[in-house]
Amino acid sequence: MRYLVTGGCGFIGSHLAERLISLGHHVCILDDLSSGHAANAPCEAELVIGDVTEEAKVRAATDDVDGCFHLAAAASVARCNSEAIATNRVNLVGTLTVLAAAARRNVPVVYASSAAVYGANAAVPLGETSELRPLSVYAADKLACELHAGVTSHLHGIPTVGLRFFNVYGPRQDPASPYSGVISIFADRLAKRQELTIFGDGGQVRDFVFVGDVVDALVASMAHRRSGAFVCNVCTGEATTILGLANILADIVGAPARLAYGPPRAGDVRVSVGDPRRLAKVYGRAPATGLRAGLTALLHEDAETSPAPARAQRMTASLTAGRT
Ligand code: NAD
Ligand code: UD1
């Protein structure tokens, strides 16, 4: 099969592209490299550098595909709050553009939604029918993506699957940006023996899910797609506070965590723990990697999964060969 992976140079998208290739599929990546890196893309993938809101580019990239995985987005809640208009364009208009191109080709779309759609709903655990109370620009846009996926399925008959990822972690999550996920930032700072900043009191609760389990869910969603629009949590059901996370990481690294406290982030969700039962029921497997095991794998595999210079050179060659 041939698949489009938007955002395939990013954290989750590059792991997905790798898996699809290892399963024998052909992968075309569309990415504007705004937060991803070309060297993250597997050498075997075709790489199109472009913006997911550019209709012509998206149409060309979907020309002969059997399905679309749509992951390209501005993934930081904090950045979306401070750059609402620019990120709305990427997160919502980008999704609409992919949905329209897929409808034209009559192919399914599996796209990244988010646990952020539950927002102020602090029920534990959050099931897919729980009330949605977005607290941020990012969350409102992800919810709008789900609504548009439903409308596209209704109007054009293509299957769509929205996966509500909870907090994803694993190798290749870039700690360089202040907008990175908390685990990549904390792991990087601990390794450099720097202090960790806790936004608020550190009592925020998250459900951390390992990237390999997320890729399992993405691949299964495309393989076992149903008709119509479907949404599903991708989570473990395991609750961890941010302070608890700092302690577990410090324990694995074997260095004490020095903490500094900053003001809470605007639009930050307080409690986010998902119910993984729908995922387990529909696809036969819920995320299985426990947090400590996943963090240990992350801290020990980091060096192996960073792009090596030779890999980056091969990427440049394949980039030149790819459609632009
Ligand atoms: P990431 O920033 O590592 O990857 C996003 C990729 O999209 C990057 O390679 C970036 O360059 C690309 N991109 C951004 N804007 C683009 C544009 N206009 N056109 C083309 N490419 C563009 O983020 P990630 O953590 O891998 O997230 C992937 C998806 O999963 C996103 O949709 C995000 O909202 C969603 N998600 C992530 C998490 C998480 O915990 N990481 C949780 C829930 C949902
Ligand atoms: C994350 C994802 C978002 C996804 C959502 C789903 C990233 C960048 N964002 O948002 O795409 O939709 O999960 O639940 O992956 N924190 C600190 N100190 C730090 C960094 C963060 O205390 O240095 C705190 C934050 O205030 C927050 C928690 O850690 O309470 C998690 O933050 P972050 O990793 O940025 O993720 P979310 O905002 O939950």
Task: Report on the architecture of this protein.
There is one protein chain. The protein contains 11 helices and 13 strands. 42% of the residues lie in helices and 17% in strands. Residues 302-324 have low confidence and may be disordered. The protein has a single domain (2-320), classed as 3-Layer(aba) Sandwich (Rossmann fold). The strands form 4 sheets. Strands 3-2-1-4-5-6-11 form a 7-stranded parallel β-sheet, sandwiched between helices. It has a two-stranded parallel sheet with strand order 7-10. It is globular, with a radius of gyration of 19 Å. It is of the alpha/beta class and 324 residues long. The chain has helices at residues 11-22, 55-61, 77-82, 84-105, 137-156, 182-191, 211-223, 242-253, 277-283, 291-305, 309-321, and strands at 2-6, 26-31, 46-49, 67-70, 109-114, 160-165, 167-169, 196-199, 205-206, 208-210, 229-234, 240-241, 259-262. α1 packs across α7 (211-223) and α4 runs parallel beside α5 (137-156). The structure holds nicotinamide-adenine-dinucleotide (NAD) and uridine-diphosphate-N-acetylglucosamine. Uridine-diphosphate-N-acetylglucosamine binds at residues 75-77, 114-116, 166-167, 179-182, 185, 197-199, 204, 206, 242, 265, 268, 272.
